[in-house]
Amino acid sequence: MKFAAPNFSNVKDGKAMATRKLSPEELQVVTRLAKQWGRIVVKYAYGEQGPGLDVDFAQMEEVACAAARGLTEGALEAATTQQGQLLGEKQPCPQCGKLCTVGSEERPLRAKGGVVSLREPKRYCPTCRRDFFPSASSVEAGRAWLQSDDAAPHPVRDGRSQIA
Predict the structure, then answer these.
(1) How far apart are the first and last CA of the chain?
(2) Which residues pair with 105 in a beta bridge?
(3) CA distance 38 to 59
(4) At what angle do helices 24-46 and 57-85 cross, to 10 degrees?
(5) What's the pLDDT score for residue 45?
(6) pLDDT for 10-69, tens place per residue?
(7) What is the structure's pLDDT at 38?
(8) How far apart are CA 140 and CA 63, in angstroms?
């Protein structure tokens, strides 16, 4: 099985950036790839012969869930780190416009499959004496840099909060 190269639709600072969303077919390829990794996990957990007759389905499921958590955490940590690097070494302060150097702040972020250790890009402006967390490019104005794809309505986030 070959993993297709990402479809690059735009360029930022001379670096090609992948499109925002993978197609259902591309996601299926990712699923098949992860399924192959499952075989490696079983070999690691139970050895060459696999689980013995004394191992029940619940125990196998526990190993599979631990592997899924690790895969989720590793993939999200790698993706967010790479995305943060696209911002470059300096960003303008939103208040005074002075270019400020890169830093980062680590924080846990709960994801669907586990807790991710996120290294969030952070800038400090010595002129304004303030920290700021740069968002995506001006094309993405109004959208948070990391935003859940959760389609469920949120009463506060969506401005429909009502006090009864």
Answers:
(1) 56
(2) 120
(3) 15
(4) 130
(5) 96
(6) 444 454 455 578 999 999 999 999 999 999 999 999 999 999 999 999 999 999 999 999
(7) 94
(8) 39
Question: In this model, does residue 136 exceed pLDDT 60?
Answer: no
Both tokens assigned to 59: 């125990």
Contact criterion met (CB below 8 Å) for 26 and 16: no
Reading the block at residue 23, the tokens are: 């197609």
Q: DSSP letters along 79-145, please?
A: HHHHHHHTT-SEEE-TTT--EEEEEEEEEEEEETTEEEEEEEEEEEETTTTEEE---S-GGGTTS-S
> What Å distances lie between residue 134 and 1, 103, 108, 120, 130, CA to CA?
38, 11, 18, 9, 12
The span from the CA of 5 to the CA of 132, in Å, is 34
DSSP label at 4? P
pLDDT at 118: 83
For the chain, how many residues are written? 164
3 state DSSP class of 163: coil
What residue has token string 């993706």? 79
- Cα dist from 47 to 42, 43, 50, 52, 58, whole Å: 7, 5, 6, 10, 18
- Report the distance separating Cα 125 and Cα 95, nearest Å: 9
